[in-house]
Design brief:
2 domains, mainly alpha, 297 residues
Length: 297
C-alpha cells in the first residue's frame, strides 16, 4: 500500500507542475460543487423549486451515501496526500482519505438527477461534473488517485442499487401508515447513529430522520407544488435557505461542539429540525405566504 501511496504523490506532484492562482481558484470552485455545503443548497432547491419527489430521492441517496462514506473512511483509516507530503496541499480537508466523499457524492447526486431528467445531454454533463470534481480533489492535493477511483466505484454501486430498487422501496414506503412512516424515520437513522456516532454521520442521519417525519406530515397535511413563477421560486429559495442558515448558526452558537454525548445529541436535534423544515415547515410557510401553488390532484 505504501508504494501505491507514493506513486499517488508522484502523480499529484506532476499534475501540480502547472498550477497557479487562477487555476487553483477554478479547481477550488469545482471542488465546492462536490461538497456538502453545495448539496445542502441543491437539495432544498430541488424540493422547493424543481420537483418535490426528485428532492426526496436525491436527499435520501446523498445522505445514506454520506453515512457510508464516513464509515468506510473510519474503517480504512487511510492518510491524505498532505499527511505524507505537506507541500501538495492546496485546499483544506480533514479526516481520512479513502474513499473520496466528493467523488462518491458526485456520482450518486448527479447520476440520480440525470436518471430523473432522462436526457442524453444531461448524462454527458453529469459525467463531466463527476470527472472534474474527482480530478479537482487530486489537483488540490487532498486525495490520492486511488481515493477518487474508489469514490467513483462506490458511488456507481450505490446509484445502480438505487436505480434497480428505488422505485420498489418508494412504493413500499408510501403504503405504510403515517405512524409507521414516522417510527421508521426515527428508528433507522437513530440506529445508524448508534452504530457509528461521529459528527458527520450524526449530521446526515439527523437530516434524514427529520426529512422522513416531515415528508409523512407533508403528504397528509399540505398540498405543495414546487412550480410557479420564477420570482416565487426565488423568494421560496431565499426564505427557506435563510431559515436553514439561522437554525444551523443558532444551534452552533448556543451549543458549541465539545465531543460529549450531550453535544452530539444536540447536533442530531439541530439537523433533525433542519430536515423537517425543508420537507414540511418550509412548504407550509410558502403556502401560507401564497408563494406556492397547490399540487394538482
Amino acid at each position: 500500500m505504501e508504494d501505491i501511496l507514493n506513486q499517488g504523490i508522484d502523480v499529484i506532484v506532476a499534475i501540480q507542475q502547472v498550477h497557479g492562482p487562477m487555476l487553483d481558484g477554478v479547481f477550488r470552485t469545482i471542488t465546492f460543487m462536490g461538497g456538502e455545503e453545495f448539496y445542502l443548497l441543491i437539495v432544498p432547491l430541488l424540493f422547493w423549486c424543481v420537483d418535490y419527489k426528485l428532492g426526496v430521492r436525491v436527499a435520501a441517496i446523498f445522505l445514506l451515501s454520506s453515512y457510508l462514506n464516513v464509515g468506510l473512511k473510519d474503517l480504512f483509516q487511510q492518510p491524505r496526500p498532505f499527511d505524507l507530503n505537506p507541500g501538495v496541499q492546496l485546499s483544506p480537508a480533514e479526516g481520512y482519505g479513502l474513499p473520496s466523499g466528493h467523488a462518491q457524492s458526485a456520482v450518486v447526486v448527479w447520476g440520480c438527477i440525470a436518471a430523473w431528467l432522462r436526457r442524453t445531454w444531461f448524462w454527458v454533463l453529469a459525467a463531466v461534473l463527476m470527472l472534474l470534481i474527482g480530478f479537482s480533489r487530486i489537483y488540490l492535493g487532498v486525495h490520492f488517485p486511488t481515493d477518487v477511483l474508489a469514490g467513483w466505484a462506490i458511488g456507481a454501486v450505490i446509484l445502480g442499487i438505487y436505480l434497480a430498487m428505488g422505485s420498489g422501496v418508494e412504493k413500499w414506503l408510501v403504503r405504510l401508515s403515517p405512524r409507521q412512516q414516522i417510527l421508521l424515520s426515527l428508528a433507522v437513522p437513530g440506529a445508524l447513529v448508534l452504530i457509528h456516532p461521529v459528527k458527520y454521520t450524526i449530521m446526515a442521519m439527523g437530516v434524514l430522520s427529520g426529512a422522513g417525519v416531515g415528508l409523512s406530515l407533508a403528504h397528509r397535511r399540505i398540498s405543495f407544488s414546487p412550480h410557479g413563477p420564477y420570482l416565487q421560486k426565488a423568494l421560496r429559495f431565499i426564505i427557506g435557505c435563510a431559515v436553514v442558515a439561522a437554525l444551523y448558526l443558532g444551534f452552533k452558537i448556543a451549543f458549541p461542539e465539545d465531543g460529549s454525548a450531550l453535544s452530539l445529541t444536540l447536533r442530531f436535534m439541530c439537523f433533525w429540525v433542519i430536515g423537517i423544515w425543508i420537507c414540511f415547515g418550509a412548504p407550509w410557510v410558502f403556502q401560507r405566504l401564497k408563494l406556492a401553488p397547490e399540487a394538482r390532484k
